[in-house]
């Protein structure tokens, strides 16, 4: 079972209950000819400031045989996604 099948809807629902508007499912970018797909993009308006917060959420399950290997894969994805977001949407955390 993939992480999306197992946790995706629960994470999405939790974000929505916390006041986040899911804007992308998935959040996709192409950078230097490479396609990137982050599980969720969301934003929340801050009432007093009238400025929005934007986030990107990658959901991981660590259901594989090796938690260390799963961690290294997740870390690599996180570093790649951080680089992509800096180029494409620097205001998204």
Give the mean pLDDT: 88
Low-confidence segments: none
What's the overall geometry? globular
Number of helices: 2
Q: Which sequence of SSEs, written as H and E, runs from N to C?
A: HEEEEEH
As a percent range, the share of strand residues is: 25-35%
DSSP summary, beta strand count: 5
- Distance between the ends: 28 Å
Instruction: Kindly name the structural category.
Output: alpha+beta
Helix content: 25-40%
Strand sequence of the main sheet, in spatial order?
Answer: 1-4-5
**Biggest sheet layout:** 3 strands, antiparallel
**Whole-angstrom Rg:** 14 Å
Tell me what the structure shows:
The protein is α+β, with helices and mostly antiparallel strands. The protein contains two helices and five strands. The chain has a three-stranded antiparallel β-sheet with strand order 1-4-5, with helices on one face. It has a two-stranded antiparallel sheet with strand order 2-3. Strand 2 (27-31) and strand 3 form a beta hairpin.
């Amino acid at each position: 079972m993939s992480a999306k099948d197992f946790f995706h809807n629960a994470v999405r629902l939790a974000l929505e209950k916390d006041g986040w508007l899911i804007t992308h499912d998935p959040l996709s970018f192409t950078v230097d000819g490479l396609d990137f797909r982050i599980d969720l993009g969301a934003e929340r308006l801050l009432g007093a400031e009238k400025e929005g917060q934007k986030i990107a959420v990658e959901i991981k399950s660590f259901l594989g045989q090796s938690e260390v290997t799963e961690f290294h894969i997740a870390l690599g994805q996180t570093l790649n996604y951080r680089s992509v977001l800096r180029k494409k949407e620097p205001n998204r955390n």
